[in-house]
Design goal:
Immunoglobulin-like, 4 domains, 4-stranded mixed β-sheet, mainly beta, 2 helices, 22 strands, 8-stranded antiparallel β-sheet
């Protein structure tokens, strides 16, 4: 409001000066046809602002750009105007869906980064919420972390300066559909009886546990659209991230995991040739393809003879990690690349304890 009062005052003074100039000119020259035309003063258009609106009021100043110094001054004055507003602001509204239904029990959070203040309320029976005794501000963020199948709501750069502000929240539904897939080995052969855990990324509460059938297939009904991850636990711990599901366009997807006919074994010694029986051995495998990241880890412990073995491996590059120790005074980790299916025979791992 300070900005417009100043601009209106300038316009009024300019108009008064023009009237005085016209009167003076008529005293000098009584013939009105010889008077020079006077340019019209640029009008100032003020838009009506409804209660709770955070939109700026437009100013029509012609084709000329506002000088930078003047613009910065107006921004500063606008911030001062917010600061000088009532110290007791109420923000209210309701939370509903795009189907016209209100939602009770949703947590609404209001946060101001500049003031480092946060307020939280839970919607009532009719989806209503109200924040009271809020300080004026220009950078409030309103969020709703939904419980049902709705997208998370976030609204930033909210200006609060009136005594009564209103902000209603309409949540966007997440489409659901039938998620289907198939687990195969690196040769494309189905992998049956594998337990899978699936979790939606945006709606972590939506999870499913399934087991692949004889064709390696599985299905999950009413799964939300968006990203999800898949986890396998057992002989190997495998995690697949970056998977996408779209009920409208997505079809069954194939996921190749590190399972096959190969074994990998080895023995661990120290530098003197003595077997090393205090060791854990990890075998890691990773695949990045089309935005999907798959990583698996197997773990075994070396026996009293320092021997270890992995079974049921797929072919290709793997990372072998040996974590060896003796008592409380020595511990060492060794990493080595191995090509399963190519590197044959017994691997010899030497631990230097010196």
């Amino acid at each position: 409001m300070v900005r417009y009062r100043k601009l209106l005052m300038v316009s009024a003074l300019g108009l008064a000066a023009i009237v005085m100039s016209l009167c003076s000119q008529q005293l000098v020259d009584s013939n009105p046809e010889q008077n020079q035309p006077v340019d019209a003063v640029s009008g100032i258009e003020r838009a009506d602002v409804n209660q709770g609106s955070s939109q700026a009021i437009p100013i029509d100043d012609g084709d000329h750009e506002m000088p930078l110094a003047v613009e910065e001054q107006l921004i500063t004055e606008d911030a001062q105007d917010i600061t000088s507003a009532s110290e007791s602001i109420t923000l209210s509204g309701w939370v509903g869906t795009d189907f016209g239904e209100t939602i009770a029990g949703e947590t609404v959070v209001l946060y101001s980064p500049s003031q480092k203040t946060q307020y939280s309320v839970v919607t009532g029976f009719s989806g209503e919420f109200k924040f009271t005794d809020i300080k004026p501000g220009w950078d409030y963020v309103l969020t709703v972390s939904t419980q049902g199948m709705f997208k998370r709501y976030t609204k930033s750069h909210i200006k609060l300066r009136s005594d009564q502000e209103v902000h209603n929240v309409v949540l966007e539904s997440i489409p659901l559909g039938l998620l289907t897939g198939r687990i195969v080995d690196p040769y494309g052969r189905p992998v049956a009886d594998i337990g899978l855990f699936l979790q939606a990324v945006e709606k972590k509460s939506r999870t499913a546990n399934v087991i692949t059938d004889v064709n390696g297939s599985f299905s999950v009904p009413e799964f939300p659209k968006g990203r999800f991850k898949l986890v396998i636990k057992g002989q190997q711990t495998l995690t697949a991230a970056g998977l996408q599901f779209d009920p409208d366009t997505g079809g069954p997807f194939n996921l190749a995991i590190d399972i096959g006919p190969y074994n990998l074994e080895g023995r661990i010694y120290d530098e003197s040739g003595q077997t090393f029986d205090g060791a854990d051995v990890f075998l890691n495998w990773a695949l990045h393809e089309n935005g999907v990241r798959i990583r698996s880890t197997r773990k075994v412990s070396a026996n009293a003879s320092g021997k270890f073995q992995f079974t049921g491996l797929g072919p290709g590059d793997h990372e072998l990690v040996v974590s060896a120790w003796r008592g409380d005074t020595f511990k060492q980790t060794i990493k080595q690349k191995v090509n399963v299916g190519v590197d044959s025979g017994e691997l010899i791992i030497v631990i230097d304890t010196l």
